[in-house]
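As the next step, I needed to go through one protein, both as residues and as discrete backbone shape codes, included below for the reader:
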Amino acid sequence: MRRDATGEYLRGALWALPSLAVVLALIAGSGLSFVQVAPGSWADNFVFQGTADDARTLLIAIASTMATVIALVLGLTVVALQLASTQFSPRLLRNFLRDRVNQVVLSIFVATFTYSTAGLYTVGVEARQRVDEYPRLAVTVALLLLFLSLLTLVFFVHHLTHSIQIDEVMRTVERRTLRVIAHDLPVEAFNPATRPDPPPWAIPVPAYGSGYVQTIHPEYLLPAAVSADVVAAVTRMVGEHVIAGSPLVHVWRPGPDQPPPDLDGLRSATRDAVRIGFERTAEQDVAFGVRQLADIAVKALSPAINDPYTSIQAIEHLSVVLASLAGRRLGDQQLSDSSGALRVVVPGRDLAYYLDLATGQVRRYGKAEPRVVRALLRILHSTGQFCLDDADRRLVARHVQLVMADAEHTIAQQADLVAIREHADRVLDDLVG
């Protein structure tokens, strides 16, 4: 669990790759400084041809240039982060920090600066005396790194321009959320109505820290539950907040007359199975991706921005996520032992939760805009087409009725309402007849 947490942190750390690049640049510079190119050899025509003073002047110029470029790159990155936070959603900052292109570009610039600056200690100087001999190959590599950095700078500006476009931002969130749905949601989920309630004699296992539940691995909790002969029910879903000392898992045995289980092993297993962090992550949290897209839609409808079309775009991306969720069995995850006895219960979100999360706030903030209302009707229609049973379709139909009720009370122009009513009638007819 600690290894996974460290890996997730490093993937979003803007300093990790540049720090590694600094170490690699120092190692490469130290190694190349011992490589001498023989005069008259085939490589002699391709290495730096100037004197030792020329080489030092070149390295100083490269280091100065790269210092300016690094400041420029960091400034552009901060601007992109500020724009994403104020224009779209503060929950999108993590996506920009995890952008591998930004990390690699900054690493190349930092490596070039480090390589050139470290070379000043060896080029043209030996034992505090000026000398004519210097590692020409090492200086040539510094020149090549400069050209690479200039090409990378142009590519970085191109990439940054595209990465802050709203279409690219929403497409990134959609792809990441679909990946979580495909790979991290449990294959077998059960209806929340079958969730066993902890009996009065259940013993709580307290949370070991405060924060958000980032990941849950019930397979790590199953052996401890079998060994202690208990049923272990996690009390929080992925993405929910928990306070240190509050119940994180309830454990109980079949009857109150049985002796209470030993909690030491269960506490250790809970720490291994449930990871708590200071922020929400998208590792197993589908609702976090839905929340990001809904935030973009709501922010676009605010009076300060007043951009209904961006809200409609976010709704269309939400339709892809909801269609993928509607085609799966959602709910609690339940694990049994080899004999078939229930041992671990992990609460999960159902389709009703995702529908309300995706459309609830957008419906309340966009109920006065006919195009937003019709976009909500389209997303509900497409979601209903992917539902697995009639109960889910009736649930979607209920949200269609909520959209219509809000529109009827808000939109004053009857001409706008006519088209919305006709659209809603067609959706309801397809869903429930």
